[in-house]
Write a structure and sequence with these properties.
Sulfatase; GAG_Ulvan_Degrading_Sulfatases; alpha/beta; Immunoglobulin-like; 7-stranded mixed β-sheet; single chain; Alkaline Phosphatase, subunit A; membrane; 667 residues; 36% helix; 18 helices
Length: 667
């Protein structure tokens, strides 16, 4: 008996749908869930609750498949032949997209060559699907893949602990005899190499960073202090549990039940502002003050992630660059404190610029009847670099390179500028503690989880950077001010950040109910100077200790700061966002302080360009080979006194070998 046409057609449509499910699962669902499953910090930073994560999971899994399947189904309106050809075309496109991702992993091809190979692979895949039945059968079996990908994400990935948390923290610590429990103030900075703070003499550069120098002058500076990982989801739990990273798990209380918040919770009130961890369980901590950022932010950032994992070129963007702290104004918070009269700093706009978590932290620094642990992990001076030392903000392209000729120097300049702003926040913290009467009686800890390398060819904080520049990645500033400590001192013992919790617990009179790998500063120093660093949990690398020497600061070009008059014309340059210079309002706290653009090919690489605002040179930078965005120069104008309200005159000059300046016309 012949099979009814409607039944045969239904089965054919089901088969086509399964093939689309399989291919979209491989092209979209699997790579996205793989990255997101290994990045619980993405959801923790954006303060996504389980319902939002599950909704995002549904969108990632269903929406792309539904869109492609609907396109194919609509083609049936034009007839069975058109439907078949459309399906074959969709299969070819998806195979090509898959080939791009596979090619990036298994071949050195990038960009246009990889796209050409992917197009050929897509055409071959479409032809094979059209000619033989076997490829379609394999794809229909592979339609079970997305179900497996979702199951792994929910049940086995590090992010599963954030979606389906289990447990509510470990045992509380107990008092050490009749110990007094002082207020504890902990400020954990992020991506701050010790060497960035040092002058040529190995001391804190008080001229550039007066408030860090002030902090060092009244605390114990553990100068030989190192983080244990270049990745915050591994480094911060090690600091707050006293244990080296052992497993790749979420920085979540269900995975690290024994941490400072659970240990102090029985004796202390906890006021914790975490950024990309959630180590404080709900039973110990109040809900965050700043609002959740919503599903829209998750969808937007996930879309950007898909563009990076599916593109034919390597992404130069650090995923954590999306972890931009909200300002007080963006979060809708009130000002933390009246601003002091300090002519050195734009205090009038501090409350608009400072991140919301810092504002909330300052607002909580007040005496209380019970001992209180005040904790803040602040993503400063971590990229994205957006602040000048004055506190003014500036915009920059997300894909601006951090490595390569000229770009490494610019990245370090931007880092140091944001460090100058961070120094101001340290000063505001010390001022608030003194104004509220907490400074003398409190245990104050300021440190960073890890550093970052600005070594050419090894920029960042992974293993390449550790091998090339361990002194920039591992060594971090660590200051511990004991209650009633008056004078500063330097301690060069072999400090590793697993020592932080046992030291704080001893100073706070809290006995930890679990074994730690670290050693309290009240104990004798280690006799072994070996450092331990974990690029991957459970896989330590070791290197010798010793305080690193700071890299020399670049000598400012003698033209910087000088006045310049219009010189002879020498050609042209293209500059991004020239309109920003025609309507500048410094009172908004934002300035067009980063200038980037292109120059004609006839201007050779290495040629110096002087960038001036209102007749004064603010930076001298080299012309470099064009980056993927077509940019051949970029200059940071770190001195906001170059700008005034209203129209500002931007000028770019070509610096001849004899020092002559030739103006380039701008467009």
């Amino acid at each position: 008996m012949a099979e009814p046409l409607w039944d045969k057609g239904w089965r054919g449509e089901l088969g086509r749908l399964l093939e689309i499910v399989a291919l979209v699962g491989l092209v979209v669902t699997q790579p996205l869930l793989d990255v997101l499953g290994r990045s619980p910090d993405f959801f923790l930073f954006h303060r996504a609750d389980p319902a939002q994560i599950l909704l995002l999971l549904a969108l990632v899994t269903v929406l792309p498949t539904a869109a492609v399947a609907l396109l194919g189904a609509l083609s049936r309106l034009a007839g069975r032949t058109t439907r078949a050809l459309t399906h074959t075309g969709l299969v070819g496109l998806l195979v090509a997209a898959l080939a791009v991702q596979v090619g990036r992993h298994v071949t050195p091809l990038r960009g246009v060559p990889l796209l050409l190979v992917a197009v050929l692979a897509g055409a071959a895949g479409a032809a094979a699907h059209r000619r033989w039945r076997a490829p379609g059968r394999v794809l229909r079996l592979a339609a079970a893949g997305p179900v497996a990908f979702v199951a792994l994400f929910l049940l086995a990935s590090p992010t599963s602990a954030v979606v389906l948390p289990r447990g509510d923290g470990g045992a509380a610590g107990t008092a050490q005899g009749s110990a007094v429990h002082p207020p504890v103030v902990m400020l954990i900075l992020d991506e701050l190499p010790l060497v960035s703070l040092l002058g040529a003499d190995g001391k804190i550069d008080a001229g550039r960073y007066p408030h860090f120098a002030e902090l060092a002058g009244g605390s114990t500076w553990y100068r030989n202090s190192t983080g244990v990982s270049g990745w915050t989801p591994n480094a911060l739990p090690a600091m707050l549990t006293g244990r080296y990273p052992a497993k790749p798990v979420a920085p979540h209380y269900s995975q690290y039940p024994d941490n400072i918040f659970t240990a102090f919770g029985g004796l202390y009130d906890i006021r914790a502002e975490e950024s990309i961890t959630r180590l404080c369980p709900p039973s110990r901590c109040e809900q965050p003050v700043t609002p959740e950022q919503g599903l829209g932010v998750l969808v937007r950032e996930t879309g950007k992630l898909l563009g990076r994992v599916a593109g034919p070129t390597e992404s130069a963007v650090d995923p954590e660059d999306s972890y931009r702290e909200q300002t007080r104004a963006e979060a809708g918070l009130d000002a933390a404190e009246p601003v002091p009269a300090d002519p050195k700093f734009r205090w009038d706009s501090l409350d608009d610029n400072q991140p919301a978590r810092f504002t909330s932290f300052l607002a909580g620094l007040k005496p209380t009847t019970r001992p209180t642990l005040h904790f803040l992990h602040l993503l400063m001076p971590h990229s994205p670099w957006a602040y000048l030392p004055s506190g003014a903000r500036y915009d920059a392209p997300e894909d601006l390179p951090n490595d390569g000729a000229g770009w490494v120097d610019l990245a370090r300049q931007r880092h140091l500028a944001q460090l100058g702003y961070t120094d101001r926040l340290i000063g505001e913290t010390l001022r608030t503690l003194r104004a509220n009467g907490l400074y003398d009686q409190a245990l104050v800890v300021v440190t960073a989880d890890h550093g970052v390398s600005f070594r050419p060819g090894a920029q960042g904080r992974g293993m390449d950077a550790i091998k090339a520049a361990a002194g920039e990645v591992a060594w971090v500033p660590t200051f511990v001010k004991e209650p009633r400590q008056q004078a500063g001192r330097v301690d060069d013992r072999n400090w590793e950040h697993v020592d932080l919790l046992p030291t704080v617990a001893d100073e706070a009179g809290v006995r930890l109910p679990w074994r730690v790998d670290g050693r309290s500063a009240r104990q004798a120093p280690r006799t072994d100077g070996t450092k331990h660093f974990y690029d991957r949990p459970g896989e330590p690398v070791t290197f010798p200790g010793g305080v690193p020497a700071p890299p020399p600061l670049p000598t400012p070009h003698p033209l910087v700061g000088t006045e310049v008059r219009a010189g002879p014309a020498a050609g042209s340059a293209r500059v991004a966002d020239l309109a920003a210079f025609t309507a500048t309002d410094p009172d908004t706290g934002a300035l067009p302080a980063l200038v980037w653009g292109d120059v004609p090919d006839r201007i050779p690489d290495g040629t110096l360009l002087a960038v001036a605002v209102n007749g004064r040179i603010g930076a001298v930078v080299p012309v470099v080979p064009a980056d993927p965005g077509g940019r051949r120069f970029a200059a940071l104008l770190a001195d906001d006194k170059l700008f005034h309200a209203g129209t500002n005159q931007l000028a770019v000059f070509q610096v001849a070998t004899d020092g002559t300046l030739r103006r380039l016309s701008l467009s």
